[in-house]
Amino acid sequence: MNVKQLLGAIGAMLFKIILSAAVIIVVFKLAVSAYDFGFNLFADIPIDEEESGRTVNVIISENQDSMDVGKMLEEKGLIRDAKMFYIQEMLSDYKDMITAGTYELNTAMSVEEMLEAMCSNAEAAEETE
Predict the structure, then answer these.
(1) 103: closest CA among 62, 71, 60, 74?
(2) In angstroms, what is the C-alpha Rg of the chain?
(3) What is the dihedral of CA 85, 54, 108, 123, to 10 degrees?
(4) Which of 44, 75, 89, 121 is found 20 to 30 A from 82 (Cα to Cα)?
(5) For the chain, what are the domain ranges?
(6) What angle do CA 66, 119, 74 make, to 5 degrees?
(7) pTM
(8) 2 vs 12: CA distance, rounded Å
(9) How many whole angstroms separate alpha carbon 57 and alpha carbon 30?
(10) Cα dist from 52 to 24, 55, 91, 113, whole Å
(11) 55-60/101-106 β-pairing
(12) DSSP letter for each residue of 64-104
């Protein structure tokens, strides 16, 4: 075996090792991202884990959809991610039930508790029908 062939074989082996390492790193990062997404979606941890939290008045108008509400809640510091709120709302029992009104929400509330408060008018209307 001459030197050129030896260097070519070593180069090919190094390329395969580097490519394999890159693939492993990408797969690992994707797995971590998927886990974080699932954890944040289903854990529903409030911003403030203390019982008192911070109370914020929120006004929801008729023309706001759940993504708009999520953006507003994120801006007011009640949730971490508006997109995650949208997905949580879509997967919850409160899908498309957010009603217009003024609500007192707290940073110690979970997304589920906020949805329950913002949908209470819709649930009451359904019960009377």
Answers:
(1) 60
(2) 24
(3) -60
(4) 121
(5) 1-43, 55-128
(6) 40
(7) 0.74
(8) 16
(9) 38
(10) 44, 9, 28, 15
(11) antiparallel
(12) --HHHHHHHHHHTTS-S-HHHHHHHHHHSTTTT---SEEEE
* Range 39-44, long-range pairs (CB < 8 A, 24+ positions): 40/80, 40/81, 40/84, 41/84, 41/87, 41/88, 41/91, 44/88, 44/110, 44/111, 44/112
Q: Which of 85, 94, 47, 41 is nearest to 67 (CA)?
A: 85
Whole-Å CA distances, 87 to 31, 42, 91, 105: 20, 10, 6, 19
**Alpha carbon distance, N-terminus to C-terminus of the chain:** 88
What does the pLDDT read at residue 1?
A: 67
Q: How confident is the model at residue 128 (pLDDT cuts 50, 70, 90)?
A: very low
pLDDT tens by residue, 81-117: 999 999 999 999 999 899 999 999 999 999 999 999 9
Q: What is the CATH number of domain 55-128?
A: 3.30.1490.480
Amino acid (one-letter) located at 73:
L
**Residue in the structure block whose two tokens are 């180069």:** 11
